[in-house]
Amino acid sequence: MRSRPYLRFVLVRLGALVLLAVGITLVSFILTNLVPGDPAAANLGQRALSDPAIVAAFRHQHGLDQPLPVQYWKYLTGLVQGDFGTSQRSNRPVGDELAEYVPATLELASTAVVLSVVVGVGLGMLAAMRRNSWLDQLLRVVSLAGVSMPTFWLALAAFFLLFYKWGILPGGGRLDPGLDPPPQVTGLYTVDALLAGQWDIFGNAVFHLIMPALVLAAYTVGLLTRFTRASMLEVLGNDYIRTAQAKGLPGRTIVFRHVLRPALVPILTVAGLAFGSLLSGTVLVEQIFSWNGIGQYAYQSALNLDLPAIMGVSLVVAVIYVTVNFVVDLLYGVVDPRVRLQ
Amino acid sequence: MSLLDVSDLRVLLPTADGLQPAVDGVGFTVGEREIVGVAGESGSGKTISMLALLGLTPPGARVTGSAGFGGQDLLALKGKALRDVRGRSIAVVFQDPMTSLHPMLTIGRQLTEHVRHHLGLSKRAALDRAAELLDLVRIPDPRGALGRYPHQFSGGMRQRIAIAMALGCSPDLLIADEPTTALDVTVQAGILRLLDRLRTENGLSIILITHDLGVLSSVADRLYVYYAGRIVETGATSGIIQQPRHPYTQGLLRALPRAEDGLTPIGGTPPSLGAVPAGCAFHPRCAFAEASCAVDRPELVDGLACPINPLVRS
């Protein structure tokens, strides 16, 4: 009974998600067509370019000779049927290529997210509990460093030290060159390896994940540490925490049951937003660690003005981002009963 | 034999100018099944001296003195020994029921967690007990209330829930810090009647903190009147209400809204932390003050900290 408005909220948000996806296709379509460049020039070789017949054939094949609204309409109708168009660079369906690259990024990004939340929130709690101690000061410096160090620099430094100098972690790729990927189910090597019971592949995939995930998570760990500390301290000043203390509850119970939960509300907001910066960070990190994910795909598509590929990437990234923030909105309701029962 | 015996309690609070005395040598006792009223303006140290008993002062505060309770000195307790007193032997009801209950935990959880911790009750037994307590404080549909959250109750109901929570472990002493201040007048009377009933039915001793002497006069057996971190007058409630001896107490009583002749506020403002006048702290606001009042600090003699005793002279 009382949860019906909540259900409506969920449905409304899902509807908004669909509208937003359409909006994103329109914006990315307009933007990619505003770029002063010719896909034909970017994708055809020198000799082919000098032959007007070949250029015309290329333009016709990819529908570039039609008016823009027609091109957009064709794209949309195709999209509804699950067709992302054909890459102008590779001549393969963009949908197939996305299915190949997206899981790699999801594996990397979700590892980084889990790492950020666990480490960032954990360190933030520690700093808040030991306020003004040497540990708090140390964490302040570390988190500030995490937030302010450019990802590309951190990636290169980690690569140099952990791989080149000390050789404790592999330098790039998702698996050692000699190994075959596990049979694809989800596209996440770690999960697929577990599903297939290939323990050695699983271990190797995890081994390859560590360095890029750490580099990618550095910023969000720093951010979450600082926000968690501030949020915990704010909650600690509330009357209901004094009530909990006056009830004689042990410190651990107070922190985990009474302080953490209200503190999570602003942390959730930041975590959702941080996920966005994490997605954009993958473009760099994947390039440096030869991680065949959507970041690399986006980079190459942009270089080649591969319009359908760029739009596919934009759409996928935007939907992931919006979905994450939708999940965050749902979690507000889980954490705070006042959101759910209003 | 009193239940609680506090003597020479001093609390220094950290401020921008270093530690400043918020409570400056107070002593009081609470007997079995007694309701003791503590009156005084905001900032007079009445709340902080009660919180100090349970070690609930803000970080950086320094507390000295002694507080005998059940054969031990509360002020010497630390860690687990202190937590075992909190909520179990001595419980607190705070001023504002809108902020003192946890907004994201169910009433059931908040009423059972300390009971399970202190008494080791099973979840079901603790919930049964919680429902009984809610019934005791007259919350309709106690079973249903256990699954709900504070925002689904009115202010008066929330204060009743806070009282039920405080009673969870059958404490010997309840410290009620302005439990009716945040509530409507009509609700106030109900809460006071409830406290009085708990004293008779559950054998509870209560320290009732308030700035409203009118509230105290209806339930408290004895009164302590605070001014600027010290007790300026104490005695049986009826005596103080009918014949207040300290000029400050007289001022407090005149400041009550009355039908006959309206209210007369006390001129001036109470001193702030660290700026307490020398001698009798009240002398700058006192109509009877003499030159000696600014020099000699009056001690509490025969329940009164005022050597001039204007009532006797006039």
UniProtKB/TrEMBL annotation, chain A:
Q: What is this protein called?
A: Peptide ABC transporter permease
Domain ABC transmembrane type-1, first and last residues per copy: 102-332
Write down the Pfam families for this protein, in alphabetical order.
BPD_transp_1, BPD_transp_1_N
Membrane-protein topology: Multi-pass membrane protein
The answer on whether this UniProt entry bears the keyword Amino-acid biosynthesis reads no
Q: Which UniProt keywords apply?
A: Cell membrane, Membrane, Transmembrane, Transmembrane helix, Transport
The molecular function GO annotations come to: dipeptide transmembrane transporter activity
Q: What is the lineage of its organism?
A: Bacteria, Bacillati, Actinomycetota, Actinomycetes, Micromonosporales
Q: Which domain of life is it from?
A: Bacteria
Checking Gene3D superfamilies in the record gives: MetI-like
Which residue ranges run through the membrane? 12-31, 108-129, 141-164, 205-224, 263-289, 309-335
From TrEMBL, chain B:
User: Which biological processes are named by the entry's GO terms?
Assistant: peptide transport
The coiled-coil regions, if any, are: none
**Record membrane topology:** Peripheral membrane protein
Q: What sequence ranges are listed for the domain ABC transporter?
A: 4-253
Gene Ontology annotations for the cellular component aspect, listed alphabetically: plasma membrane
The family database entries (InterPro entries) matched by this protein are listed as:
AAA+_ATPase (IPR003593), ABC_Ni/Peptide_Import (IPR050388), ABC_transporter-like_ATP-bd (IPR003439), ABC_transporter-like_CS (IPR017871), Oligopep_ABC_C (IPR013563), P-loop_NTPase (IPR027417)
Entry annotated with the keyword Acyltransferase: no
Molecular function terms from GO = ATP binding; ATP hydrolysis activity
- What are the protein's UniProt keywords? ATP-binding, Cell membrane, Membrane, Nucleotide-binding, Transport
The cellular location(s) given in this protein's UniProt record come to:
Cell membrane
Describe the family membership recorded for this protein in Swiss-Prot or TrEMBL.
Answer: Belongs to the ABC transporter superfamily.
Indicate what this protein is called per its UniProt record.
ABC transporter ATP-binding protein
Taxonomy, top ranks, is: Bacteria, Bacillati, Actinomycetota, Actinomycetes, Micromonosporales
